[in-house]
Amino acid sequence: QEAIVYCHVRGVQVHLTLDNGQLDLIEHRFDIALRIGAQKDSSYVARRLFYGRRVLVATPEYLAHAAPLEVPADLSSHPIYLVGPLKGESVDYDFVREESQKSVSLSPHLWSNEGTLVVNRVLRGGGLAVLMRSLVEPYLQTGELVEALPGWEIEGDIEVFLMFRKHVWIDPKVRAFVDFAMSHIPARVRAAAKSG
Fold this sequence. Notes:
Elements: H1 2-5, E1 32-36, E2 44-52, E3 54-58, H2 60-65, E4 80-83, E5 91-97, E6 100-106, E7 110-112, H3 115-123, E8 128-132, H4 133-142, E9 146-147, E10 153-154, E11 158-165, H5 172-195
Parallel strand pairs: 4-7, 4-8
Antiparallel strand pairs: 1-11, 2-11, 3-8, 3-9, 5-6, 5-10
Helix pairs in contact: 4-5
């Protein structure tokens, strides 16, 4: 989002709309959409921006006073916050560490389609959250949040795409913006991953 806001491409004026719904590009007169997860609509062109890694995070204060958390199975003793969409009452995650893999089914105490709401909830120290690393990297850098199961990684990254209608590609401003986003956003994500 930050890279999009600071897009400096001659002749391109950015109008940024934030909405967690799958808004129709034609109905809302959008040139480009940023979408998370697999995209099946063949009427749009999809350009993969990056793969986002998910992390399990909490505040140091919460972990210091909460029930022990050493292996993925211990998660059943903790409040869990997730970002949707949620299909059913629980979500299955595979945690891997070296040659070991553990599958757990998490029933969230709070689920929301708004990522910043979940971030703010976990920052208040009430539990654990599974979030994209790029969303919580600033808080990991400052130590406000930490990875709750060090050494364990959540298997399966999330794909993030730029979506646009096929005919808008002839617009040089759209091409310029897509080129800018493709060259700047993945680099920022890679830099954040290396710093973590």
